[in-house]
Amino acid sequence: MTARFNYDRISSLYAQHDVTPQPAEVQGILVGLVATGTQPDSPDLDGLLSDL
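^ thats the sequence. predicted structure below, dont judge the formating
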């Protein structure tokens, strides 16, 4: 089963936390989410972004 990421949701989370990531940072975050099996709509995304 392939995870489908809601990029609009991820973008809105970045905006809520006033974060403007570099492309390499976004790639690293997405690779980390895939590697750890984080679900696209998981509350863990909020925690991840608040730790940036």
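Residues 17 and 51 are 10 Å apart (CA to CA).
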